[in-house]
Automatic annotation (TrEMBL):
Keyword field contains Methyltransferase: yes
One function term, GO molecular function aspect: methyltransferase activity
Organism (species): Streptomyces olindensis
Organism classification: Bacteria, Bacillati, Actinomycetota, Actinomycetes, Kitasatosporales
EC number(s) reported in the record: 2.1.-.-
Pfam families on file: Methyltransf_12 (PF08242)
Domain of life of the organism encoding this protein: Bacteria
Keyword Methyltransferase: yes
Protein name: Class I SAM-dependent methyltransferase
Domain Methyltransferase type: 59-155
């Protein structure tokens, strides 16, 4: 697929996220009307891997509503969020202002982040939880991250495990709650086109731009993209917990997150890499 075709599909995704934003703002899933709690989206091991953030420059790529970005600011970081959706960036600025959080938000495609941020360098680049699947070219992404980090800087990716993205419920009604391997684990098969009037949250239908495109990326592809860009992978964690119940049969854990009752399989991973 050519770069022009990639750009066309990413513009479709941008329009789709613009259309999603008002639905997400009003959803129970994000719970903004009940009060902002950005820490709920983080596993304890994330803070352990990220280390001390006070006084650090932290960039959150593909930040959407910027709720996690606010958590970095509350821990003393000079926090910047970047997203390609104008509606998301506008919403993120409003949420941060109402929360009294000092966060800078920038509208840009992740591949244009170096130019959009005027070459600014960061101690930490953070991304994940549904971000990488919207990027067609991980090598280009990893190169961009490398250019955003100071020497010794950290990239932290917390992303849905590709095994989770491969699972789906049985398509026919009345066949039980079992999950089957229905989708590719590995990338290379081209984009997956979705035309959905509802997103991962509750709330009304998305109006207008309902088309979106996702690319599968196995963990090997992520690691090789980063090492190919000169970064060193320091740690890889896998967990069987998610911050919300993706499937009805998931059970709540002591951490407040959710897991499948059986079998124990990785649903989320955390990857720490340094420049």
């Amino acid at each position: 697929m050519t770069s022009a075709e990639h750009d066309r599909l990413m513009r479709a995704n941008q329009a789709n996220w613009d259309a999603r934003t008002p639905v997400h703002l009003a959803s129970r899933f994000y719970g903004l009307e009940q009060g902002l709690d950005p820490e709920r989206w983080f596993a304890p091991f994330e803070w352990e891997d990220l280390g001390e953030l006070a006084g650090r420059d932290v960039l959150h790529l593909q930040c959407h509503l910027g709720t996690e970005t606010i958590a970095f600011a509350r821990r003393g970081a000079r926090a910047v969020g970047l997203d390609f959706s104008a509606a998301s960036v506008a919403a993120a600025k409003d949420i941060a202002a109402r929360a009294g959080a000092d966060v800078t938000y920038v509208r840009a495609n992740v591949y244009d982040a170096v130019e959009a941020l005027d070459g600014r360098l960061f101690d930490v680049v953070y991304t994940g939880k549904g971000a990488l699947c919207y990027l067609p070219d991980l090598d280009r992404w990893a190169e961009t991250v490398g250019r955003l980090l100071r020497p010794g800087g950290r990239l932290y990716v917390v992303e849905f495990h590709p095994l989770l993205n491969s699972l789906g419920p049985k398509p026919a009604p009345g066949e039980g709650p079992e999950l089957l391997l229905r989708h590719d684990y590995l990338g290379g098969g081209g984009p997956v086109h979705r035309d959905a009037t509802h997103t991962y949250t509750d709330g009304p239908a998305v109006e207008g731009a309902t088309d979106s495109y996702e690319w599968m990326h196995g963990t090997g592809e992520v690691v090789n993209a980063l090492t190919g860009a000169g970064l060193t992978v320091r740690r890889l964690r896998e967990t069987d917990e998610l911050p919300w119940p993706r499937w009805p049969r998931m059970v709540r854990t002591e951490s407040g997150w959710w897991r499948l009752p059986e079998p124990r399989i990785p649903l989320l991973y955390g990857l720490l890499a340094t420049r």
